Amino acid sequence: MSDFLTAFSDDYFEARDKFLFAARVAGAKVKSVAHPLPAPNGETIHMDIAEYGPDDAQTGVLIVAGVHGPEAYCGSGIQIQMLRSPEIMAKYADVKLIFVHGHNPYGWAWCRRVDENNIDINRNYVDFSKPYSVNKDYKLVQHLFMPDDFDEAAEQAIYDWIAEHGQKKFATTAMVGQRIDENGLFYGGLRPSWTNQTFRREVLPLLAPQKKALLIDLHTGLGDYADGIILHVYPKDSPRAKMFNKWYDNKVDGGMDVLDNDKVDYENSGSTVASFESFYPDKDTCAMVVEYGTGDLSKILMALIKDNWLHVKGDLDSAKGKAIKKELLHMLYPNTEEWKTGVWKHASWVLDKTAEHIGAL
Ligand SMILES: [Zn+2]
């Protein structure tokens, strides 16, 4: 089967049309929640939610695409091809399925990993009524990301800092998330974002009748090119970690600590997977991230740093601005046949294995 290639899209609106069509043809119930801000072309954008399967199912599976804007192209293709495949959907006949297409539609339509307020959604799902980390160390690198002009010298200054302090220090300083600079990188926000509020209000209640729930959160950026890795937040040797190893033939990369070769302690508070248990205190829950590799992590990071600079100090319509957007899109969505083939190979395997074992959740 090679028609999976047509499940992937070249822009947000193409992906949305395909998703809505595939969901309706499959017989899913669809609702769309409009975002308050439009796409660059002025059109309305949405978080689209498709619901499929028996209401009285014991188990619900929530498949989310697009926490990080254009990373949604990958998850969208996977969702659409799944909905288009009667043989895959049949394997989930006893399960309530929820698809969230465009979790952060603003970031997707504008080609930004973050939302309309520069919030990294995966640092925003914290309990704001309790103390949360702000990462004051971010001050050490903040100036490097906001030069007057982002030229080669600015790029080199970042590489020099990493060479001097090490990859691990850079990751724990710059990448874990921060709440001291609302214009900075991996900013977690000081209150629930539109995506966070909408997800809690419109999506979570859909699995109210189910006793058990699994979250599959689809991302790109980590792992080998055109291949997938499965990540989770459960401690090594915990029952959930062992369960995932069994389900996925030990092809699980374990905790969210793969940001570099030194196994960085990745402080992950605020991600959907880390918070999933708190969404459903009365259910047995389980959550995983599937990441699809797109290239060298340092290149991805540099593309994100430049995009952050562009939206604060640059000009989106300039040649440099356009080059930065093109590079970012490519680093989060390598839109080639080879890459999409690798993605669907892994994703279809994950979907098969999940269906095979979901009864044991
Ligand atoms: Zn992501």
State the shape.
Answer: globular
Would you count the extended β strands for me? 7
Question: Count of helices?
Answer: 13
Q: What is the H level of CATH, i.e. the homologous superfamily?
A: Zn peptidases
Distance, first to last CA = 30 Å
The residue fraction in helices comes out at 40-55%
**What would you say the CATH architecture is?**
3-Layer(aba) Sandwich
* Rg result: 20 Å
Q: By helix and strand content, what is the structural category?
A: alpha/beta
Order of the strands making up the biggest sheet: 1-2-4-3-5-7-6
* Percent of residues in beta strands: 5-15%
Uncertain spans: 258-268
- Main β-sheet, in a few words? 7 strands, mixed
Which fold name corresponds to the CATH topology? Aminopeptidase
At the first level of CATH, the class is Alpha Beta
| SSE string | HEEEHHEHHHHHEEHHEHHH
Please tell me about this protein's structure.
It is a single chain. The protein has about 350 residues and is α/β, with parallel strands linked by helices. It has one domain (about 5-135, about 170-360): Aminopeptidase (3-Layer(aba) Sandwich). About 40% of the residues lie in helices and about 15% in strands. The chain contains 13 helices and 7 strands. It has helices at about 10-25, 70-85, 85-90, 105-110, 140-145, 150-165, 165-175, 195-205, 240-245, 270-280, 295-315, 320-330, 335-355, and strands spanning about 30-35, 45-50, 60-65, 95-100, 210-225, 230, 285-295. The protein has a 7-stranded mixed β-sheet, sandwiched between helices. The two termini are about 30 Å apart. The model is unreliable at about 260-270 (pLDDT under 50). It binds zinc ion. Zinc ion (ZN) binds next to strand 5. Zinc ion binds near residues 67, 68, 71, 219 and 221.
